[in-house]
C-alpha cells in the first residue's frame, strides 16, 4: 500500500472559477495514464462533471445525509485510489461545514488519507476571505491556489492579489482561444482519446493549441503524484519534458 491516498477537493465559494474544469482535467489525466479513480459531483442541479463521466463519478447532494454518507465514507477509504471532488459554489458552505462537523481532517490523517484542497480563486474579496477561513480552521491544510485564466482572469495586479492567499503553492490553468475551447467543451470530446490518437478531421491549429495547453497542466498534476513541489517554483526541466512528450503525440 502507498503511504497515503490522495483526495483532490476542487473548491471555490464563487461560480465561474473553473472547479469543474480542473476536476475534469484531473480525471482525464488519470484515464490517460491508465489509473483508477473515483469522482464526486456535489451539484445535483447542474452535474456537468458527473454527466461527462457517468460510470466513474457519483452525483451527491451534500445537503442530505444520504449524499454525505455516499461521499464521505468513500473518501476515508485508504485504497490507493485517488478521489476527485468537484465542490460546486452552491454546495460550498454545506460541504465545508460537514467536513468540520464530522472531523474529516482528523479522521483522514488517522487513516493515511491526504486531502489536497485545490482552491480556485478570482479577484474578489470573498475568495480571499474564504481561503483565509479554511487556513485558519485547519492551519496544516494542504491548499493549492488555482488560477484559471480562462474562467477567472485577474488582469493587472494579479501577483499582488495572489500573494495575499494563505498558500504559496500554485496550479495554473491557461486560457484557450474560443475555437479550441469549443472543441474541448463539446459533450462528445474525450481528451485522453485525443492524446492517444490524432483525429483526422481536426485542424492542425486546434490540435497543436490544445496539446500545448494541456501539457503544462498534466505536468503539474504529475507533481502531485511524485510529491514534487510545483507552481511558481516548478522545475523548467520537468515542464519541458511534459510539453515535449505531449507535443510528440500531436504530430
Structural summary, described in words:
The chain has 251 residues and is an alpha/beta fold. It folds into two domains: 1-175, 3-Layer(aba) Sandwich (Rossmann fold); 176-251, no CATH class. It has eleven helices and seven strands. It has helices spanning 19-32, 48-52, 65-75, 92-101, 104-110, 125-137, 158-162, 178-185, 191-196, 204-226, 236-249, and strands at 5-11, 38-41, 57-59, 83-87, 113-120, 143-148, 170-173. Strands 3-2-4-1-5-6-7 form a seven-stranded parallel beta sheet, with helices on both faces. Helix 7 (158-162) links the parallel strand 6 (143-148) and strand 7 (170-173). Helix 8 packs across helix 10 and helix 10 (204-226) packs across helix 11. It is globular and about 50 Å long. The chain starts with a strand and ends with a helix. The model is unreliable at 229-245 and 247-251 (pLDDT under 50).
Amino acid at each position: 500500500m502507498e503511504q497515503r491516498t490522495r483526495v483532490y477537493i476542487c473548491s471555490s465559494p464563487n461560480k465561474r472559477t473553473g472547479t469543474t474544469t480542473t476536476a475534469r482535467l484531473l480525471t482525464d489525466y488519470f484515464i490517460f495514464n491508465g489509473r483508477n479513480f473515483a469522482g464526486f459531483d456535489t451539484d445535483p442541479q447542474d452535474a456537468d462533471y458527473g454527466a461527462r463521466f457517468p460510470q466513474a463519478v457519483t452525483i451527491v447532494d451534500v445537503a442530505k445525509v444520504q449524499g454525505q454518507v455516499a461521499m464521505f465514507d468513500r473518501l476515508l477509504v485508504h485504497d490507493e485510489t485517488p478521489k476527485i471532488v468537484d465542490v460546486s459554489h452552491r454546495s460550498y458552505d454545506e460541504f465545508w461545514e460537514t467536513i468540520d462537523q464530522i472531523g474529516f481532517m482528523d479522521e483522514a490523517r488517522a487513516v493515511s488519507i491526504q486531502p489536497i484542497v485545490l482552491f480556485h480563486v478570482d479577484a474578489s474579496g470573498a475568495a480571499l476571505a474564504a481561503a483565509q477561513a479554511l487556513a485558519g480552521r485547519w492551519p496544516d491544510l494542504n491548499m493549492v491556489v488555482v488560477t484559471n485564466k480562462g474562467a477567472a482572469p485577474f488582469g493587472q495586479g494579479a501577483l499582488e492579489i495572489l500573494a495575499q492567499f494563505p498558500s504559496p503553492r500554485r496550479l495554473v490553468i491557461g486560457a484557450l482561444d474560443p475555437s479550441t475551447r469549443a472543441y474541448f467543451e463539446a459533450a462528445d470530446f474525450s481528451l485522453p482519446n485525443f492524446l492517444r490518437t490524432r483525429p483526422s478531421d481536426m485542424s492542425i491549429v486546434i490540435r497543436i493549441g490544445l496539446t500545448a495547453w494541456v501539457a503544462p497542466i498534466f505536468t503539474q498534476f504529475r507533481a502531485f503524484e511524485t510529491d514534487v513541489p510545483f507552481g511558481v517554483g516548478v522545475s523548467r526541466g520537468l515542464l519541458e519534458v511534459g510539453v515535449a512528450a505531449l507535443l510528440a503525440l500531436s504530430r
